[in-house]
Amino acid sequence: MAGHPSADRASDLVDPVTYDLVIAGGRVIDPETGLDGVRDVGIVADRIAAVSQSRLTGRRRIDARGLVVAPGFIDLHSHGQAVGECRLQALDGVTTALELEAGVAPVSVAYTRAAEEGRPINYGYSASWSALRMHVIGGVPLFGGTNGPLDGLGSPGWRAAASPARTAVLLDMLRGELADGALGIGVLLGYAPEIDPAEFVEVARLAAEAGVPVFTHARPLVEQDPGVVVDGAGELTRVAAETGVHMHYCHVNSTSTRHLDRVQSLVEAVRAEGARVTSEVYPYGSGMSSIGSDYFRPDRLHILGATGTPQDVVYARTGETVASVDRLLELRATDPSGLAFITMFADDRPVARLAQMFAFPQAVIASDAVPFVVEDGREYDPLQWPPPAFVRTHPRGAGTYGRTLRMAVRETGLLSLAETIAKCSLEPARIVAGVAPAMRRKGRIQPGCDADVVVFDAERVTDTATYQHSVRPSTGFAHVIVNGEPVVSDGRLQQHAFPGRPVRGRR
């Protein structure tokens, strides 16, 4: 982009360049440089070309006066990877949604399928330890489906002990996935809490040698399950320290429940000794997963549940609150992969708990969005917009970022606007940048960076999705631009826009 203005300049200078798109007069916040001021942003093709105090000329122009202009949000933990789910996230300010906790296998198939179908936002995947284990240990075929690892989590076959020979096959397949561009290794240990800890160490060593992160859903804590093979937080931090791997602690708020203080102290201790442990949180008091998984066993509901009874569970396909142990067992038997809510906290808004979450070391915001659930007997066209009322999901897939901005900044003042934007954009980009060089151009409003930009009203941005009406999009996000192309304009989804591109690891 030689010849384009590449730095902030005095307001009395005239820029002779005509840009493809100019975002004019907004409050530009760049979390890396600390810029926070009124600027014009000039975009050429898919890159930011100028950030200027002077008025820029563009073939298209967005009037951003009174609005915030920030890097598009980067979600490291999104299982909802189909078009409809991505559209819902775009309306929440997300420009890149990655499936890193569960991952997929084979990643090559998932990348090819997403490219052929088109995506409104950028996408990418880790290698799925659980899917590969289902294949190697349980004989389940690999198909690269982005929802695959959420299926079969309750099956005992894939959680069986692995012989040294099978472990070697599993590790070789993980190496192959990394060679095909996986963004790290996703490990769902919490769904297989009896797995030999030595296997996790071997996976971490492999990742450390390859220079990629391990995105870990930790085992339960000893406070939650005194009989657990090893304390989840203790294992995660110890393995990070011993192997030198970059360990990412997935949704630390939901797996730690009421014991976040102890988990935080463990993470801070190993970080002080040089271990690299990052983490993520979401601002909701209910989780969601496959009803056939261990977390929904009647004798294990206490691990995450607020009361430890079936009434903590809501079956998403029907919207029913589970009334009894017998009904829970019936649903686990008839629809083990069906998604269900589990209430972890009766009130998910206490300021003290929010402060704990946001203060967690290296914690970014991530949604843990899940795939859409369709009522029995109904048909849903994945390109239909808006989704019909018989489609459900967790409201965090629609409102995580609007909710964070509302609660963390406007209602509680726990974080500044700039700090919150950093946790939603720059800091997630940095977590993945070591394995995916393209991420060094995201999470920033600077010349030469990708034109992934969100424009929003800081005074009214909010989530609107509820547990009863879960596919309602956030409001206050006026414009969302992905690779230079508007996906949301004046608050309205552009249904024809599919500018999303793959984010791949080094190959």
List keywords for this structure.
507 residues; alpha/beta; Urease, subunit C, domain 1; TIM Barrel; nine-stranded mixed β-sheet; eight-stranded parallel β-sheet; 13 helices; globular; disordered N terminus
Question: What would you say about this model in short?
Answer:
The protein has 507 residues and is an alpha/beta fold. The protein has helices at 83-90, 107-117, 129-138, 164-179, 197-210, 232-243, 252-256, 260-272, 325-334, 351-358, 396-411, 417-424, 426-433, and strands at residues 18-30, 35-44, 47-52, 57-63, 68-71, 73-75, 94-104, 122-128, 185-187, 214-216, 247-249, 277-281, 286-290, 313-315, 320-321, 339-343, 363-365, 373-374, 391-392, 453-456, 477-482, 485-489, 492-493. Strands 1, 2, 3, 4, 5, 20, 21, 22 and 23 form a 9-stranded mixed beta sheet that branches. An 8-stranded parallel beta sheet has the order 6-7-8-9-10-11-12-17, sandwiched between helices.
N- to C-terminal separation? 27 Å
Count of DSSP helices? Answer: 13
Count the E strands. Answer: 23
What would you report as the Rg, rounded to the nearest angstrom? 22 Å
How much β-strand is present in the residues? Answer: 15-25%
CATH topology of the largest domain: TIM Barrel
Structural class computed from helices and strand pairing: alpha/beta
